[in-house]
Design a protein that fits this description.
284 residues, alpha/beta, Molybdenum Cofactor Biosythetic Enzyme, Chain A, Alpha-Beta Plaits, 2 domains, 6-stranded mixed sheet, 4-stranded antiparallel sheet, 12 strands, 23% strand
Length: 284
Amino acid sequence: MSHIFSFKKGAVILNKTSIEIIAIGNELLNGAIQDTNTFWFCKKFTDLGGDIQRAVLVPDDEEIIAREVAGALERKTGVIFVAGGLGPTADDLTLAAVAKGAGVPLKLHEEARKMIRESYDFFASKGVFSQGGLNAGREKMAWLPEGAEPLVNPAGTAPGVFFTHQSSTIICLPGVPGELKSIVEESLEDFIAETFSAGSFSEKHLVVQCNDESLLDPYFKRFNNTYPEIYLKARSGMIEETPHLTLVLSASDENQEKTESLLSNALRDLMKWLAEEGEFTVSK
């Protein structure tokens, strides 16, 4: 387990901050398992300045997965995360589906094959598995879309997959949250640092003693016209239980100092409009 994926600096990504997430598994759709991976992706990459444009849950169906991949490529999404379906059994269809969606064949990747064998040998030596080495199911995980490279999985046996195709980067990851996070945070460290190095995300909160969003609509319209680069959202609770609304102002920019300054000015103006003109009680 000594092979480290090396991201080639300077790889071309048309829109390196746009992101789509495809979470795969019948168990996600029938409610047997909660999809926490999508939430984790959204939080992590929004904080890095990424633009999460779409997230979907799909079944273990090769045609459906392939259609989602093809659609994301057609939309020229910068980074496409595909989570789940990388294992050794017949229901693990992700790599074949990604290849189909990208219009490329599957090809046995010798480095991936070696990584998988070493992973099974390692876990067998610790008594986790009864035997190491390869069998047909294990070798299946080494058939990658042509042009793709394996990513070291520090916590499991199925390698992640890094695949630059057209103007997008497709990253396939195991569905087990611990394995997924380990690959992202360790094997993709260089890629993430370069791809999202220019982005920053910030937000500010404002509490308004009002539980009727319709009364705030004129102020939302004024705000959107004045600060089109800031996203303003009201977070509400149960009407009879929550006498206030929390307004969230958020923005991304290459310059964090600029983003913070913009949000501070916008928050000041919004507080003024609501308190002085609308006579609402507001607090940060």
